[in-house]
Automatic annotation (TrEMBL):
Residues 92-139 form the Peptidase S54 rhomboid domain. GO terms for molecular function: serine-type endopeptidase activity. It is a multi-pass membrane protein. The gene is Parl_1. The keyword Hydrolase applies. It is found in: Membrane. Its EC number is 3.4.21.105. This is rhomboid protease. One of its GO terms (cellular component) is membrane. It catalyses: Cleaves type-1 transmembrane domains using a catalytic dyad composed of serine and histidine that are contributed by different transmembrane domains. The keyword Magnesium does not apply. It holds the Pfam family Rhomboid. GO terms for biological process: signal peptide processing.
């Protein structure tokens, strides 16, 4: 009798706990999905309000950050052969020396270039940016 009583109460407790955990996890999953959908809607609405100039500047900043991270990879640092030379020539316009350098340039670039990019149009702005980069390579 004791074994049956303990066994049945253990099974009932297990089923009750199992039901509670499933309900809790479904609620948490629903909350998480709702939050993810809200975040996606906010990003989408923000993206729709971004001007062409701001998109251009964000793209150039993304290239700057990508090249900055690329230079931190051991195989891409100076003295590693032909691929470094090619990368150096192609990406010198997007290179930055330190974290402070890229942060300061990104801040100034965002503050002053978005309106210029909107006025010039993204194609002309990219042409001016790349031309300035090439000229700075020759000067340096």
């Amino acid at each position: 009798f004791t074994d049956s009583a303990l066994g049945s109460t253990t099974i009932c407790q297990h089923e009750s706990l199992k039901s509670w955990v499933q309900t809790y996890l479904e609620g948490a999953r629903t909350d998480w999905l709702d939050k993810a959908q809200d975040f996606r809607k906010q990003v989408s609405s923000w993206g729709n309000n971004v001007t062409e100039g701001q998109r251009t500047v964000m793209g150039i900043n993304a290239a700057n950050v990508f090249v900055f991270c690329l230079w931190r990879m051991p195989g891409m640092q100076a003295g590693h052969g032909f691929r470094t030379c090619v990368l150096l020539c192609c990406c010198r316009t997007f290179s930055h020396f330190s974290l402070f350098h890229i942060a300061a340039n990104t801040y100034v670039f965002v503050e002053f270039s978005s309106s210029i990019a909107s006025v010039l149009g993204y194609k002309q702005f990219i042409a001016v940016y790349l031309s300035a980069g090439v000229i700075s390579i020759f000067v340096s």
